[in-house]
Amino acid sequence: MNKDIATPARTKEILEKHGFSFKKSLGQNFLIDPNILRNIVSHADLTDRTGVIEVGPGIGALTEHLARSAKKVVAFEIDQRLLPVLEDTLSPYNNVEIINQDVLEADLNGIVEEQFSGFDDIVVVANLPYYVTTPIIMKFLLGKVPIRAMVIMMQKEVADRITASPSTKAYGSLSIAVQYYMDAEVSMIVPKTVFIPQPNVESAVLKLTKKAEPPVEVIDEDFLFKVARGSFVQRRKTLLNNLQSSLQNGKAKKEQILQAFERIGMDPGRRGETLSIEEFGKLANALYADFK
Ligand code: SAM
Fold first, then answer.
1. Smallest Cα–Cα separation from 231: which of 267, 268, 272?
2. What is the SS3 assignment for 8?
3. Percent of the chain with pLDDT over 90
4. Is the reported ipTM for this assembly greater than 0.95?
């Protein structure tokens, strides 16, 4: 087996050889601990028939571990300066494709069709650039990219929000949007010391697994998320007040909102943070005809 990229000594050697300097604005915090990498990969349950999508390979620390366990890895890297580095570090692997593109601009379903046709399953595995964690996750989920799971490193605070249960401080529209599609659990908490440079925040690896069925049947998913977002605009306010100011740009009629609550027997004086996804689904369906 090849020598790991992610040891502190080898990483330093690679960075020096290529004269690479980190760009903070691209969320460049590279992993320098092979144990953490092995641990991340073990949570992805890869087989030699799995296709992996990686976001932000950096110098290839995680990519090579994925290439050893999966059939093929397709990795999106926005920073052009890393292309010659990756060509060098990943030269022993013939099952890796690097795409020099902002993942947020990518045609993910097109790539999946082109690169992974006939594969058993597709998993996203990444040490994400933290400044775009949520847009990246939502692009995969809202775009209905046919993935089995995501195993992704992010800021711990975001992982806490995604996995939060009702009636906790961290619970909000992000918890609802992600948990509508995926089961979410924190796989491990990761200290700052395993990165170079060290980030300012604590990190966590989150595992998201696609649900067989959404937890509630809704008329319109976008409208469910709109109602959820609107219900948390001011956390201390009641659902009625929040929805009145968020639906139809604040022009929603109070009476009509109250009628929707009455139809489903829900108290409009509750706060958004107390509602389960199932209850948000019911509420969104009741509001849909008048406020879509
Ligand atoms: N995977 C490497 C590791 O674990 O050492 C690097 C992870 S680093 C946290 C994030 C990587 O994402 C960087 O290489 C950065 O250049 C890249 N990146 C940042 N924004 C991106 C975007 N919008 N699309 C694709 N890659 C991006």
1. 272
2. helix
3. 97
4. yes
